[in-house]
Amino acid sequence: MRLATFRRHGDEPHVRQVGLVLGQGEHVRVHPFDPGFDLVGLLAGSPEWRDSQADVAAAGDGLPLDEIVLLPPVYPVAMRDFLTFEAHVDGMERGHGNPGPPAAWYDAPVFLFMAPHAVTGPYDDVPMPPDTERLDFELEVAAIVCRDVRDVTPEEARDAIGGYCVMNDWSARDVQGKEMSLKLGPSKGKDFATTIGPWVVTADELDDCRDAEGFLDLEMTVRVNEQPIGGDRSGHMGWSFEQLVSHASRASWVKAGEVLASGTCSTGSLAESWGRNGSLVPPPLQVGDVVEMTIERLGTIRNRVAPPEESVAPVAPARRRTRLEASA
Amino acid sequence: MRLATFRRHGDEPHVRQVGLVLGQGEHVRVHPFDPGFDLVGLLAGSPEWRDSQADVAAAGDGLPLDEIVLLPPVYPVAMRDFLTFEAHVDGMERGHGNPGPPAAWYDAPVFLFMAPHAVTGPYDDVPMPPDTERLDFELEVAAIVCRDVRDVTPEEARDAIGGYCVMNDWSARDVQGKEMSLKLGPSKGKDFATTIGPWVVTADELDDCRDAEGFLDLEMTVRVNEQPIGGDRSGHMGWSFEQLVSHASRASWVKAGEVLASGTCSTGSLAESWGRNGSLVPPPLQVGDVVEMTIERLGTIRNRVAPPEESVAPVAPARRRTRLEASA
């Protein structure tokens, strides 16, 4: 089952409605559930109950995509981004002058918490963020958590993953590089936009896409201005999504409404090529570029880089004071 | 005005009520607001309206602290931790074998997003997290955001900060170090507990604590097992909280209910001493240790390190696959 969040053209900006997605290509129609239905709540329910609700929605009129705005399927209560594709880590490390992934990468699936308010809709324009000359994309699979869990095994975690969607973790590489030199991981380098969508495909719908070890194995591709530029398979993750949830849940809550992302697949970003090539080839994104990401069975998100919005001025440099005192 | 979140002993675990804190020391009493009042909503209201609501609460009976459980004053919609104390960065960098803060530190206030579900109450026990032999504390000031802002100047940001409280950003330094070697910043090294409290002091109450440049300047101290172990002044931050909000808001939302923290003050953690001393002196925290943090005007939080809870087993190492393919 495919579940979308949307509003109609002309609705107030705060309106969000959940719909059942039926049909393919030009024949896609979004059939609204009754107001009050929550996408994460639908994911958390039993498949039988969800099916019965979907039957009611399907019986109503469907809306073509040109009558609605698709919104981010969820507004996450928290967002974690992992780093699970070995070949991507390999390319990025080469960009830092290292021979390949550090040994620590293999031990456990590291992640960072992301800006939860930066999610944007699957076809929204993304304004060029300030301070960057190296705008990049990151092709990822995102899992939507539908139940609160803590200290669960990978087997137990399976029930907590309600569905999956495509994600573009837009990145300002020059800003990010500076931030990472301070050992805190990226913040402003990644907090301006994270595109998720176009809708959520429920986990039960993807059981036939698992490999022998249970890893979700879907083809992932990215195109820039209609030219294929990269792609991989989600089966190349070093850990399954169930393992990611289990790891995150150790002595910590993972809550309904969270989004957990795979991290960038290999060749799913420009920076990996920059690392391997030792130069900015292919070039960073420019205003007007259109980035299109497709994951088998999950759909396509497509976003144009828009001119920058007006931003407030950068803050002043640090007030220096304690340095002098500390060395006194 | 001081505002606390609490439940009475015997209340269901999900119950949260907001109260006005009156009195000092043993005479502290928490006077409940009517159910339905929200702490962030009280911070966002005008001082006059808040005062009138407080008058109503003050007229009712007050509860002594032994009749209630103080909860985290807010359950953040997002949490950012900055790195603003120059002398702390200096000590940490020495621990990494560097001569002092990198030049990039001075340019802009870097931050990370933290685990928003890990907040714990001001007097709660904190179980020893798994996988660590280097448990540490971090003494910080936290600001509570009460309005949604985007692209605001420091002057405009002032209105968005509703109040302040004490924060202990508990850290498993060995876990954190390993994660930071992967350039994503700490995740499991810091996601098990972040103590905030004991209550929120409204920003208008602290206008007399600002220095000539408008920086909040409060004495901060930390004691372990009743022995003073570190302390600093919030005036030693490299940027004011208004500048932190402004920076975070550049091309991005900062939303009501967020917590923005100063980062660790100098000598406000053990790791800074480990960096300077080149050895684990003072020793890492052990089960039974009590960490007590006091910030002038904001109050005291006090937490005992409890025995570890039972955790799920670590996940398996990465499935190696693409490495072979990539190098083929």
Automatic annotation (TrEMBL), chains A, B:
Gene3D superfamilies xref list: Fumarylacetoacetase-like, C-terminal domain
Protein name: Hydroxylase
Region (Disordered): 309-328
GO MF, any single term: catalytic activity
UniProt domain Fumarylacetoacetase-like C-terminal: residue ranges: 81-305
Pfam families assigned to the protein according to its UniProt record, in alphabetical order: FAA_hydrolase (PF01557)
SUPFAM superfamilies per UniProt: FAH (SSF56529)
